[in-house]
Amino acid sequence: MFKKDISAGAKSKVKSSVQRAIRTKIVETYPLLAPHIDEIIPKKSQLDLLKLPDRVSLYALDNTPLFWQHMDDPIIPHLRVIHQFPQCFPRIGIDRGAIRFVLSGATLMAPGLTSAGGRLPDEGGQLKEGDIAVIEAEGKEEACLVGQLRMGTEDIKEKKKGVVMDTGHYLGDGLWKLNID
Amino acid sequence: MAETTQAEAAPTEPQARHVIYCGVCTLPPEYCEFGGTAKKCKEWLEKTHPDMHERLYSEEAITASLSTLSVDAQKRAEKDAKKKEAKAAAAESREKEAREQAMVYIKRVERNKRKYVTAVSGLEAHGMDLKKVAKEFGKKFATGSSVTKTASGGEEIVVQGDNSDDIFDWVVDVGGVPEDNVECIEDKKKKSAG
């Protein structure tokens, strides 16, 4: 989604009522984040809304991007936020061979997850199509990709083929490099 | 009073992990090898975070990470990495060259006998955001300053009043453009009917 370098459009302040709505929406989407939400977006803070190309809106606080949203899709955290609270998001892992493709912006395919190095949730924590998932890499501590799943984890295990995530935010992409001031 | 607030703040406070990011490629250091500037990143890490460097680039870590890949895939990855590195280096040198050659023109245009406007073009090649610079000029000189499209398709900053000398100084000092790359031009409008 952010393969090219992007530049931010107009920056505007978010109404406090809208900001409250965003907060509840985030907590709803990521229940595990609830105890930390005050740390990410303090109650009395002033969020900024930046318009990015392709109808993406980016929420930033004090010039640090926090969350982005494509139209009315679920709100997705910026990777730096994920690095700060990795345990709060549903995570799956890819094998080493897939890293370099992911970091150059390729779509994530199922074999990267089903092979020996990949990691998919067990019975309890299955993810559905459309869920937001954080992708971690084999042998690495930090997450490298976040986005919306195109295929449920159960399906991935079964089929072992096809696109898993095609539009996401990965390390070193336009959103990662975006400089707002 | 101060004590109570402190006690309350303590548990809620620092839960965010502090992650170190590479100063060269901005990725977390463990991903530097995929960034195309692996060598520079390694040097940077060694200098600024020696402990982390040791952990990431130790013999064991490297062999462990390599052993999980098949020989074939390793070779391909290596080739890919080399290509990427060369590409990054080429892009960097090209950019540097372009920057060295790019000229900034400060043009004084006569508007009305003793009134002038100053048009500045070529700043975007030196990595400046025209809109922001225009705003800056407007504030600095307390005049109107705007980004306008030129006939040739580019964009330039038009500042009201004759500020060419001040702008020259600003471009050299704040903008960091070498003095040789800045040129002042005087442009007199010829009026057919006086």
Describe this structure in words.
The complex is a heterodimer of chains A (181) and B (194). Chain A folds into two domains: 73 residues, Sulfate adenylyltransferase (Roll); 82 residues, Roll (Sulfate adenylyltransferase), CATH 3.10.400.20. Helix content of chain A is 26%, strand content 27%. Chain A is built from seven helices and eleven strands. Chain A is globular. With 194 residues, chain B is α+β, with helices and mostly antiparallel strands. Chain B has two domains: 83 residues, no CATH class; 86 residues, 2-Layer Sandwich (Translation Initiation Factor Eif1). Chain B is 47% helix and 17% strand. Chain B has seven helices and five strands. The N terminus of chain B is likely disordered. At the A-B interface, α2, α3 and α4 of A face α5 of B. Chain A: Involved in translation. Chain A: It is found in: Cytoplasm.
Q: How large is the share of residues in beta strands of chain B? A: 15-25%
Text of the CATH class of the largest domain in chain B? Alpha Beta
Task: Classify the oligomer.
Answer: heterodimer
Shape of chain B: elongated
Work out the number of β strands of chain A: 11
Tell me the structural class of chain A. alpha+beta
CATH architectural label of the largest domain in chain A = Roll
* Terminal Cα span of chain B: 78 Å
Give start-end ranges of low-pLDDT stretches of chain B: 1-12
Strand order of the largest sheet of chain A: 1-2-3-4-5
> What helical percentage do the residues of chain A reach?
25-40%
- The SSE string of chain A, one letter per element, is EHHEEEEHEHEHEEHEEH
CATH topology name of the largest domain in chain B, in short, is Translation Initiation Factor Eif1
Name the CATH class of the largest domain in chain A: Alpha Beta
Largest sheet of chain B: 5 strands, mixed
Subcellular location (chain B): Cytoplasm
Domain SUI1 (chain B): 104-175
Protein name (chain B): Translation machinery-associated protein 22
Coiled coil (chain B): 74-101
